[in-house]
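User: Can you recover a sequence for this backbone? Please restate the input before giving your answer.

Assistant: Of course. Working from this structure:
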């Protein structure tokens, strides 16, 4: 009886841990692909960094293929502020 109770408690703790990790991943606070052992996907579009200026305005540094772009977002839309192309040798 005591072993069954301990096994149920361990299962409950593992389930709580799984739910917490799922919530963190859903909110973007955890990235499992950055850990060693997880396959990295070759993405052509990647958000490098995002800086929130106001609740409605932000700056996003985005990499698309070999181009890096700075994009400003606002309620009226988004605007390309600067771009840089990487040279391939």
């Amino acid at each position: 009886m005591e072993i069954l109770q301990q096994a149920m408690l361990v299962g409950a703790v593992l389930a709580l841990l799984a739910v917490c990790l799922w919530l963190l991943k859903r909110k973007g606070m955890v990235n499992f692909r950055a850990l060693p052992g997880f396959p990295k996907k070759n993405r052509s579009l990647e958000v490098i960094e995002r800086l929130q200026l106001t609740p409605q305005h932000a700056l996003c540094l985005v990499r698309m293929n070999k181009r890096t772009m700075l994009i400003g977002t606002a309620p009226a839309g988004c605007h390309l502020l600067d771009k840089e192309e990487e040279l391939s040798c």
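That completes the design. The radius of gyration is 21 Å.
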